[in-house]
Structure prediction request, 230 residues.
Amino acid sequence: MDIVVKGRKTEVPERFRKHVAEKLNLEKIQKLDGKVMSLDVEVSKEPNPRQADRCDRVEITLRSRGPVIRAEAAASDPYAALDLAAEKLDARLRKQHDKRYSRRGARRIPAAEVPDHVPGVATLNGTGASTAQEEEQAVPTKKIGSLEVQGDGPLVVREKNHVAAPMTLDQALYEMELVGHDFYLFVDSETKEPSVVYRRHAYDYGVIHLRTDTMVTENHSPEAGGTLGG
Prediction:
């Protein structure tokens, strides 16, 4: 099989033809596709000066008993365009080769090795049950505070209950400075709602107020569902 190099609206110098023969290694191509029938390389030139960086275009067409594989690229000179097109052709040839090779089963993965090659795949035990389910059932559940925790996390390392008298914002800032914390939770004496004062930059502070949503409270109150129980 020979490589046919032709120009479209441009002359192809002999030096470039030799470069094509060196760049497109027929022996390497036939290893990837042993049924290659023809390999054509077409060189064209864009006369528009605005496209000087893409004025030379190279199109490679490989025909075999399988599907036609085509790769094309454009660059500022035909040699650079050929290099880019050759890289695309090689990638597409390898993809086609791997697809054909895997279809024959030569690269089948044994069932025991599937978890090593396929991330997230479920593994089965001898009875056909998922080992992930077994591990989940085997993980102990414990109660920490008001949370039920499986295994090691999330871990609540400390839970505290405080009896707090309502206070003003100024008093909360003072209390925060006394304990040396960056935030302080308190009950606002005006609104009787939980609030948090926190340190920002230098001597700047911020405060977050929580407001009870009366609609949510009513929807979740015991009286809201009285008619269903009656």
